[in-house]
Automatic annotation (TrEMBL):
SUPFAM superfamilies: YgaC/TfoX-N like (SSF159894). Residues 20-107 form the TfoX N-terminal domain. InterPro entries: TfoX_N. It comes from Ruegeria faecimaris. This is TfoX N-terminal domain-containing protein. Pfam families: TfoX_N.
Amino acid sequence: MPNDEHLNQRMRLALEAHIGISEMRMMGGTCFFLNGNMLCGARRDKDGFGRFMFRVGKAKETEALSNPFANPIVHGKRKLSGFVVVDEADCDPAALGDWLSLCLAHAASLPPKS
């Protein structure tokens, strides 16, 4: 998952008003956290398309996947529950804010990690 600084900066700007946000390079991309709990990630795939990964939680996964721009994340044959992926082109600033609201609500429901 190649790192993409443009996508990372979009995510940073969308999250800048929130306290407790951190980020970590993982698998060549960047993941963002709230109080140690993963929120989302940004990457540019080998096909050249930028994508955002959102951790919406299992309870909101069906709702999230009802959005025509959201897709499940599948690694090999295993679906990653509670996560969706959205292409950069389908995620304008308003949509990014909506996705992050779901992620922030889920992460806020979890105990902080150190």
